[in-house]
Amino acid sequence: MFKADVVIAWVCAVVFTIVAYGAMDLPLWTAAALALVVGLGAWIASTPLCGQWMSRLSGRIRRWGAPDMVNSPPASVDHVTALLAPKPARSVPPRVSRSTEPRPLASYELAGREACWRCGEPPVAGTHAWEDRGDFQLLSNHTFTCTNKHGWTNSTDGS
Prior knowledge:
By secondary structure, this protein is an alpha+beta fold. It has helices at 4-23, 28-50, 52-62, 77-84, 107-110, and strands at 103-104, 125-132, 138-145, 151-156. It has a 4-stranded antiparallel sheet, with no helix packed on it. The protein is rod-shaped and about 135 Å long.
């Protein structure tokens, strides 16, 4: 028993042969060759309506030259969980302090410094140290003493 797609193709080929040979006065072999092409075309065009096997074949013929479709399976649950899991914190090396121990100031470093606020004498001794209080907080600490043993400090953050 013929499938419907074969019947449709056979009818199209017979009708085309009659028209080509009888009405258009083509030679019989040309009409037969063209009828074969028309029948094959009608068969491919009608197969999606008629059968599964021919439907797959006509689909392949229609997709001829097109890039293959990629069928990627869905990701496993473990993979999705790994993607959605929070990222571990980067291990940042501990911050190194830039604080220094107080060092004595030389006489040329004491020259021109502010005088004692109690007696007005210039400083005769002093120390300098850096104190690191975190990012962008490096303080310069000076301690001074005058001849009368008064002490005072001066701290600046670079401004």
